Amino acid sequence: MPVVARPRQEPRGRSRAWHDPALVQTEQNPVTSRWPRANSAAEWAGYLCVAPLVLGLAAVGLLGDYPARELAQRATIAWGAALLAFTGAVHWGLALAGRLPWQMQRIAGALVPMLIAAVAGVLGGQRALALLVVGFGSLWLYEHRVLGTQLPPDYLNLRRQLSIAICLLLALTMFVSDAAGLA
Predict the structure, then answer these.
(1) For residues 113 and 88, is the Cβ–Cβ distance under 8 A?
(2) Can you give the pTM of this predicted structure?
(3) I need a labelling partner for 111 at 20 to 30 A (CA). Which of 33, 90, 141, 142 fits?
(4) What torsion do the CA atoms of 59, 175, 67, 54 make, to the nearest 10 degrees?
(5) Half-sphere exposure of 20 (CA within 13 A, CB side)
(6) Which long-range contacts (CB under 8 A, 24 or more apart) does 127-133 make?
(7) What is the pLDDT of residue 33?
């Protein structure tokens, strides 16, 4: 009877690290294994990153004097731009780690959010808030429609929830800015 080599199995309850060469997708190694599950600390960190947008919305709506409301609006724009650039950088990191193949579309998907964030920072005001909403919405569509099969379902679920929350908060900040007399 021939000896058959069995694949190496991980101990129960333990997943492989993201940088394990066996999980890196190449033409010779098409990865079909599951992605490691995001831990709850990473999920909480994602949700906590939305908190400054809530504070910015409240400050734009509740602060009494115009300069303070304008500063709150600029801080909200800056935070939203940082979040958008970070989200694009996630794709860059996945491609660097070999988890996503390098293609021109992937490079654009990683760099365009940064460019949108920079333009929003320069524009300022309600236009910047609207541009950030469009940027987050477009990135969400790109991730779900173009990369949906290549990204882990847990990540896509988290990104959907965060994108909806961020777009809602930025849009509300835009409306409250208009009511507060901010450009």
Answers:
(1) yes
(2) 0.76
(3) 33
(4) 20
(5) 12
(6) 128/77, 128/81, 129/73, 129/76, 129/77, 129/80, 129/170, 129/171, 129/173, 129/174, 129/177, 130/171, 130/174, 132/77, 132/80, 132/81, 132/84, 132/170, 133/167, 133/170, 133/171, 133/174
(7) 46
122 vs 108, residue with greater confidence: 122
The CA distance from 71 to 133, in Å, is 19
In this structure, are residues 177 and 60 in contact, taking their beta carbons and an 8 Å threshold? yes
Over residues 101-130, mean pLDDT: 91
**Two tokens at 90?**
């996630």
Tokens of 28: 């010779």
The model's pLDDT over 119-151, given as tens digits with 9 standing for 90+, comes to 999 999 999 999 999 999 999 999 888 888 888
Say how many residues make up the chain.
Answer: 183
Q: How many CB atoms lie within 10 A of CB 58?
A: 13
The domain locations on the chain are 39-179
pLDDT band (50, 70, 90) for residue 26:
low
Q: In Å, what is the CA distance from 98 to each residue of 8, 10, 81, 102, 170? A: 22, 21, 26, 8, 33
